[in-house]
Batch of 3 targets.
Target 1
Amino acid sequence: MTTVALKPATMAQALTRAMRDAMAADPTVHVMGEDVGTLGGVFRVTDGLAREFGEDRCTDTPLAEAGILGAAVGMAMYGLRPVVEMQFDAFAYPAFEQLISHVSRMRNRTRGAMPLPITVRVPYGGGIGGVEHHSDSSEAYYMATPGLHVVTPATVADAYGLLRAAIASDDPVVFLEPKRLYWSKDSWNPDEPSAVEPIGRAVVRRPGRSATLITYGPSLPVCLEAAQAAEAEGWDLEVVDLRSLVPFDDETVCASVRRTGRALVVHESGGFGGPGGEIAARVTERCFHHLEAPVLRVAGFDIPYPPPMLERHHLPGVDRVLDAVGRLQWEAQR
Amino acid sequence: MTVMEQRGAYRPTPPPAWQPRTDPAPLLPDAAPYRVLGTEAAAQADPGLLRRLYAQLVRGRRYNAQATALTKQGRLAVYPSSVGQEACEVAAALVLEDRDWLFPSYRDTLAVVARGVDPVQALTLLRGDWHTGYNPREHRVAPLCTPLATQLPHAVGLAHAARLKGDDVVALAMVGDGGTSEGDFHEALNFAAVWQAPVVFLVQNNGFAISVPLAKQTAAPSLAHKAVGYGMPGRLVDGNDAVAMYDVLSEAVRHARAGGGPTLVEAVTYRVEAHTNADDDKRYRADSEVTAWREHDPIDLLEKELTARGLLDEDGIRAARDDAETLAADLRARMNQDPALDPMDLFAQVYAEPTPQLREQRAQLRAELAAEAEGTH
Ligand SMILES: Cc1ncc(C[n+]2csc(CCOP(=O)(O)OP(=O)(O)O)c2C)c(N)n1
């Protein structure tokens, strides 16, 4: 088997490589979903898997999300490790019943006799000019469901490392793929894929002293760019990439906030009832005496995802992040 | 040869352009519910099988009565009785080999017990002390499933996985008439047919989904007819005729095991008691209807056949009842003990490794319990 050297690689390629390596290493790993076989997925993330491993290992299923995930439950019960692709974020909703009523709680209700090692890959988020139902950020729904791990990579190396970890996990993992980063490149060497990343650890992507930007997935590049821009204002921003929303890495996040004294959560999904509220509360509960300003949030508006021609007004961009950084400063001086 | 090696047989390549793939006639269900008892065919039935079915039916009836009594005493949170449906329950368990899997709904405790699960463990969910209560792997019985029809795709996935591994395992999944309206029912049937998965779907049409009669549930000629649209055979069978149930289900299991794919079996039966102890069935049906069905009782039907053939006498009947009484007494005795619960179990199996968040909450509960214990000393 020859490996095409891909340097630099895209996130999509790293994800493909992660599945390929997992399938090669473990014959119980099965990829399934709509159009994942011959076509290689509508984002081509499963490209080549059916050719290499056969249609029994990378299967085009009938078009029915509950059926796909429900069948994956039975397959996992029989010892397989299904990796399920949900074609787009909003098309995972028909499978919620299976996810919430069965996938998330089978281990618990069977007292550990029946763990379900299922990875549910969900391309999520906006910024790709998708029409209605193609850009939702659904992470809050998953986070609210005990029994699921919720993971979202923001870099090419993490895409590989975290997906390998997700597939190897004996628990179900909702693996959120920021689709607008699918084609982002990194100088990642697919011939030496990075180490498998343990699920549940955040990472400081950029050290700083003035404030902490807490973010993940599609908003990481936005925050890094904002941090760069803020330098001109004399602000030295630290950027924490959560990578895993469940379990949540309080330790890394709070250590950072205690250092900087200010925190801003940035994500695309709506703010009301969104991940930022939970994160802000956790940070406040743990770091109150270190905080020099309230924890702020920059989130998408609380609206159904807007049409593509308007989405740039909805998505938190660098300016909105910088405005909030300004408010952190103002709040501190008040 | 594993299925992977004979892929062509397992998953036929679709025709290049769409065309009707099969003559639907072989898929059409029986014109009337298939029956053995009371017909000449009954004389052919194996005496050993008849006796086995009879003993299980009598046990099942007694189990239903005992479990219902336990709800009245507050020992069970709820019990969905299967009185009148015992033939379906018993046949579903008896047609399976050890290596096969059963996927029951909440009403199918009897099938679970008939498959060999400890009667007390089978009631754990309904008792409310823990969810599944038994180890599904031990007897290859999936957890009793509460959300309607959601266990059906699991059965398909498991059967498919077994096939992929080259094991000749069959999954039998049970669902009620109301459950056939759920999306998961349709998705499961479609997957099973497309994948030619070795699954038997058993619909117990007991007339009602809580209060809603079949006529308001479907406009199909019968539930078994639904099979045709998915490309699998449908069977219509008298659900109160234990021998007919056994025949039809074992034929479907054989068909599945031999690589023939899934079958949909509709058992026409009746829920003689209320939906659960929380239901008032007087609101939606007449006593006369219930009485008429009581006259088509699965135990009576079989008893008549056994007696007529000289396979059962007063002593035999008494022996079966004594055996059922022993089961009931054991159930009573063990259910009348308070279960020993450890609150720390709450956190035990949410994840393989508890998250830091759960570890904190576990510590909190432990502290609360310690404080509580101190307070009572
Ligand atoms: C998804 C879902 N919706 C609603 C319910 C509540 N519910 C429990 S039993 C029942 C009726 C089911 O009727 P049927 O499928 O005919 O089975 P039966 O109880 O008659 O055996 C309903 C509506 C449920 N358990 N799951």
Target 2
Amino acid sequence: MKSLLARGSELSSSSEQLKILTDVSEKKSLPLFETKLEGSGLAPFLPTRIEILQVNVGKLCNQTCKHCHVDAGPDRKEIMSQETMRQCLDVLTGSEIPVLDITGGAPEMNPNFRWFVEEASGLGRKVLVRCNLTILLAGEKFRDLPEFFAANRVEIVSSLPYFQKRRTDAQRGEGVFDKSVEALRRLNSVGYGIPGSGLVLNLVYNPAGAFLPGGQSTLEGDFKKELKSQFGVDFNSLFTITNMPISRFLEYLIESGNLEEYMEKLVSSYNPAAAVGVMCRNTLSVGWDGNLYDCDFNQMLDLPVAGTVRTIGDFHLASLEKRKIRLHQHCYGCTAGSGSSCGGAIA
Amino acid sequence: MAQETTYYKPEDLKKFGNIGEFEPDLAKKFFDYYGAVFADGALSAKEKSLIALAVAHVVQCPYCIDAYTADSLEKGVTEEQMWEAIHVGAAIRGGASLVHSVQALNKVKELSI
């Protein structure tokens, strides 16, 4: 499968995606997300304090997952430069932001990835890498990644949609499940996910279709039992994340005839308790070109941060913490049910 | 108004909560009970969802089948578990018919030389 961009799909345009979300909301008389927040006493929607700098180092990926909100893939060439990475490190040096969250694409495919991790790790901050697992088996130059991660005390967060092959491969591509299990074994072999090692390996569950994730703790129990008994694999925590109705998951929703019902489900499951803790309130998202966003989803929809500070090079903490968070109908995805963030359920 | 071609309409499932329009107190009692039944207890909410899926097939309720198929998926139930539950329902339903054949057997013996 190619990316939406490579296929010349209309959905590769963020304005087309926003138009579709607006149209379906009007057709089904769904309230604006902003109105819903007002009803919960949460308007204007403001950040708390920046605790996570999430840096998307590029859209290049060795996988082409059906639900990918980045539209990443082998045909995407957008890559963060070393200069922009340096600006991110300068921001960490000049602030007390405790967590650097590196994402992509497959972030390990950025040629300056290891330098970036080593520099950030040297600053004494928690460094988190969103590793898709199969990259560990993608060639000789990625083979020693488990040892590299361990040496830099990196926290690993990896998608594994399900503990069975069928649903995982349906979402992430044929053969991904078997490779993911092999990658998890390699991470376990250097101590990741093993009690007492201090090396953290967390997994991410995305529903393999047009439904919401169930209870995080129940699913974590199922994953732990099945992965251990069937494959001998250990991990620390499972994060449940709701699929956002954007990019390639939006394409799936339209093609499968599920878009209207999925949006209705997100809206009817709106949970004000989850809205209070959504990740855009304590996260700043940096695009591959250095532009700033409230979250990775706004980044992919080209909804930049409000205010005068627009790039990581112009970072100014006080100004950014006063900004108003940009909202649209996709935001219902983070506030449905138990809520959804990069760290899993919220409420 | 166009002639309806079916009694069952999928969108009516979303209106289930509206049944309290004329008897709100009784509806509230029902939904409170319903919520309590499906909460985690000695059986997990996931196990209860599978029981509901099996019963939905036995009572042939299209709304319930839609609702508890989706609910099972949300709770991380595998397809194998879902279909085993459906077969349990089918086996009880089939068995319920067949066990009455004992009565037929008795009658055959009563009437035969």
Target 3
Amino acid sequence: MRFTRMAAIAAVAVLAFGTAACGKDEPATPAGGTPLTSKAAAGQLKFGVKADQPGLGLQVGTNYEGFDIEIAKIIAKGLGGDPAKNQYVTTVSANREPFLQQGTVDVVVATYTINDDRKKKVNFAGPYYTAGQDLLVKADSTITGPDQLDGKKVCSVTGSTPAKRIAEKYPKAQLQLFDNYSKCVQALSDGTVDAVTTDDIILAGYAAQDAFAGKLKVLGKPFSSEPYGIGVKLEDKAGCTKINEILKAAVADGSYAAAWNATLGKSGTPAPTLDTSKLTNCPA
Amino acid sequence: MDVFSDPLNRQAFLDGFAMILKLTAASALLSLLLGLLLAACRVSPVPVLRALGAGWVHLFRNTPLTLIITFCFFGLYSAMGVKFSDDIDINNYWLAVVGLSAYTAAFVCEAIRSGINTVPIGQAEAARALGLTFAQNLRLIILPQAVRSVVAPLGSILIALTKNATIAGVIGVAEASSQMKQLINDNGDAAVEIFAVFALAFVVLLVPVGYGFSALANRLVVRR
């Protein structure tokens, strides 16, 4: 769903050279397990994550941190592996499906919105969080919702779904596009644009950054629904169901809330209650 | 060709290239004028003007264009308040044109200066002996011959400018590469096809420009 400048190049490179990755050896699957559990046992789980979203998936040096990373650790533990042995691969919005199909990664936890098109290509466990498009404004702004954007300058990322939604539903807003959200937040803080829009959870990550603490606010009135799923291979139905079980257990034992509090919860937002009855996206 | 059979997608493609042409046309004109002025500065007898011309060329030729255009938005517009229009799209278009022109003018200046070096020194000396001023000398004797000898390199600069116009996307101008990104994001399974169509369109657009400038250079060259 998000899009960065490299995505086009990466997507083409992935598709063009993808065939080379098809013959990769899979570890033997022991009886009763799934390909994911055997990889977890061998400490070979590879997670596709975002590298440029504060609070969710952010690369810091050679490490990754954020809510998505914590979810990946919970999954690795639930599959019987050692979370410390998780390998993380940076993905952008356009290469998540190819990476799963070609086995570059085993699981994708990367602000991955579940939708019908994508369900034809990969299986989604979850949703582990339901985000919604929202607005980030200055702390003293008078904007209270998307219907007040007429003539206002709204910033988002080129080619992204939130940008498209603004252009279609609120055509009177002036849309400023950049290649990443950091520039939008910069333009917002120096007053060049009036609002930044994307999923609330991502905006919360920016608002919680030290440089902007107290200066920006997320309106908290989402005007879309973006259920974030955990992507696995289309063939791997058992793995998908297994991850849903892990999520249910994580909610029950409090590790889900702990993952939130260690990352996005720092901005003051309490941990969401995950409705485990909605974990129904895996094919039967 | 499934993606481009959708009229909306075809429109996005056409809009993107129309924007590339608009950016190129305005920047080509401005950078040619500015480049001529800078070249005149660089060969002028006034040290301050020579320093100004040399400074401009070294600064803009050696700075990445992405930075220049980003600066046009965050520096010129955001910080210094240089504004062309209240409409965000028109404003960004002109900010991009300013960045592209400032950058390309440095290359135009150097091409023209190299052309000036092809004019035999005797021509300038004869003009001086006839009592022409520096400005008259440049305008009537030197530049007409100099420009004719650098038509081919100017063509290369124009081709580079057309491709560089895609960088205007970093401040949100809806040019071809931004439209390509949007299309690929909406149609992830057809990424290769979309990429190929956009790449091919640039080739189709620019190959004739190259041939045209070669032919023009042959016709205009001053034969000595």
